[in-house]
Structures are given as C-alpha cells and as structure tokens.
Design brief:
Length: about 350
C-alpha cells in the first residue's frame, strides 16, 4: 500500500512541478500547437500554446513507479513493466506525430497509415509478450479469455493478440478524439485511472492465492498494477492544473495516445475488458459520435447528424461555453466511473 501512495504522490508532484519547466522550454523553442482551420473559430486563440506536454506525464509516471519500487524495496513485476512499455510506446508514436506537426508547421502529423502501423507494432508486441512470463502459479500478465469482469470466452493465442490490438487501438484513439477542449481528456482519464486503482486493490484483497473461492480473482500482480494506476491518476491531476482552461500547455497526441493505451492495458490485465465500455463511457460516447457522423454523412449523401464531430465540438457550435462543456462532460465521466465500479462490486456481491 505504501508503494501505491508513493506512486500517486510522486507522479502528482512530477507533473505539477515539471510541467511549468516544460512550458518554458517548449515556448523558448517555439513548439506551439497548430489549429485546424475547419475547427471551431474560438480555438484560433489557442494557436501557439505549447504542446507535447504528454512527455511530462510519461516521464512522471515512469519515474514515480521506479522511485516507489526503490523506496519500498519491492521488485517490479512483469505486468507493471509491460503496462509501462505499452504506455511509453504509444507515447512515442504520439510524440512523432506531434513532432512532425511542430517541426513542419502543419496541422497534420504522421500519415494515417504510419500512425496505425506504429500503434499496431506496439500493441502486438505488448500482447505477445504479455502471454509469456508465467509466474509460479502459471498465470501470465494477460489471459487468453475475453472478459467483462471475469473471463467468459477463451480464444486461441493468435486471436487474443488481435483482440488486444483492437482494444488498444480503439481506446487510444478514443482518448485522442476526446482531447479537443482544455482539460477534458486529462480530467476524464484521471477519474478512470482512479477507478482502476480501486479495482486493482480490491482484486488483490480478493485474490485466489489468498482467498480461494467462487468470488476470487485470477489476476496477476494486481497490487503492482495499482501502483501504476495510482501514478497515472496522480500524473493526470497534476497536469490538469496547467491544462485546465485557459490551458497553458496541451498534452498532444503524445499524451492522449499513451493514456488511452494505458487504459486498455489495465482493462486487459485486470480481466475487465468490456467493463471499460462502462467505466470509460464518456470516451465511448465521443467516439460513437464520430462514427455516427461519418456513417450518416455517407448514407445521407452529404447531410450531417451533428454540427461537428467529435461531440464536444457540436456543443461548442451550439453556443455552449468551453468550460461548461468540459465540466458537464466531467460529470458524465464521473457517473460512468461510478456506474462501472457499482457493476464491478455488484458482480462480486452476487457471486456469479
């Protein structure tokens, strides 16, 4: 438990104190955000705001986990190392995207194929490695089952890799789509990571190794995953201090892709893959708004379902203030998180 508190606290300090340093460095080098001309006109005032702040989040989480392990004398687990690899690996893909934008001075970074390829390489590597490294009880970091709160459908190893790839690509892109307003994505992510901190602690307390029975959890390294989840929660809250409206810095694709990947990784490793649809309901809703917009546009031959997608921009163009949208979406995210935790606990109480 000390490691969890240390991980969360150190990561919070890392982004809270490290972000202003990053702002000064990025401003000095002119690494500012470029704004698309086809977006809401109110966003043009944000042109030049420092971006790639996700680097601070990644560095803080990794450093906080390492220091927590060092200070408590605990050895790192395979699950936590793999999760941090996924987190940092997708952050690298996002960083390349952001770097091309600021260095080439264009609003589009990596080509879509290159971006998908980068995500695929990281996700497949993560999935393939996570099926290895069994512990003394022959548990690997991820299982070969599709899960809601527990595994209910076992798949061949090849299909597991494909399933994990779909999870990671979908979630990382969902958080990326949500990162359109000051503080929206990072604040919502903090809530979901906080939920997964609680889920991992509960799964550790009800582990099949210590409390065997029909309600126990076959999750490996759950307490160490809680350390990473707490570090992610703390880092998000610290960064939100500087990313809240009016944002002094944006996390860019560096942050959104890495955070989305970490969410997917936690869902897969805790055997709560489909529960993520509930806990991360805001991200699902925003993603669905884009899918519906594109689908309706094609089916209706040019008509739009929303004024603009993703959904937050529809409300902007409807006259809602940015801060109003963000706070109301945070409320929705909080309700989704509460609902997801309620479903998780209810399943344990019911014992089914």
């Amino acid at each position: 438990m000390r490691a969890i508190l240390l991980g969360g606290g150190l990561a919070l300090l890392g982004t809270l104190l490290g972000t202003p340093i990053a702002i000064r460095l990025l401003v000095a080098r002119g690494y500012g955000q470029l704004i698309r001309d086809d977006g809401p006109t109110t966003h043009h005032t944000k042109r030049g705001t420092p971006t790639m702040g996700g680097l601070v989040v990644i560095a803080s989480v990794v450093a906080a986990y390492a220091l927590a392990k060092l200070l408590t004398g605990d050895a790192p687990s395979a699950s936590a190392i793999l999760l941090l690899f996924l987190f940092a690996g997708l952050g690298l893909v996002g960083f390349l995207d952001d770097w091309i934008k600021v260095s080439k001075q264009r609003s589009l970074g990596l080509r879509s194929k290159a971006k998908v390829m980068g995500q695929t390489v990281v996700a497949v590597t993560f999935a393939a490695l996570a099926l290895q490294f069994p512990d003394e009880d022959r548990r690997t970091p991820i299982s070969q089952g599709v899960s809601f709160i527990r595994d209910f459908w076992e798949l061949p190893a090849v299909l597991v890799v494909v399933w994990v790839l779909v999870m990671i690509a979908g979630t990382s892109n969902a958080v990326n789509l949500s990162d359109g307003l000051d503080g929206l994505a990072i604040g919502s992510s903090a809530m979901v990571f906080g939920a997964y901190t609680l889920v991992n602690i509960w799964q550790n307390n009800q582990s099949c190794l210590t409390r065997p029975g029909p309600r126990c959890y076959e999750v490996r390294d759950s307490l160490d995953l809680a350390v990473v989840a707490a570090a992610l929660t703390g880092a998000c809250f610290g960064f939100l201090w500087w990313n809240a409206s009016p944002a002094k810095i944006f996390m860019g694709d560096t942050g959104s892709l890495s955070l989305g990947g970490a969410l997917a990784g936690l869902a897969v490793m805790t055997r709560t893959e489909l529960l993520l649809l509930v806990v991360g309901g805001l991200f699902v809703t925003i993603t669905m708004s884009v899918i519906l917009q594109v689908g309706w546009f094609k089916l209706s031959k040019g008509k739009r379902l929303f004024r603009m997608a993703p959904l937050q921009h529809h409300f902007e163009l409807s006259g809602w203030a940015e801060v109003t949208i963000v706070i109301r979406f945070w409320i929705i995210s909080g309700l989704c998180v509460a609902g997801g935790l309620g479903v998780f606990y209810a399943e344990w109480v019911a014992g089914v």
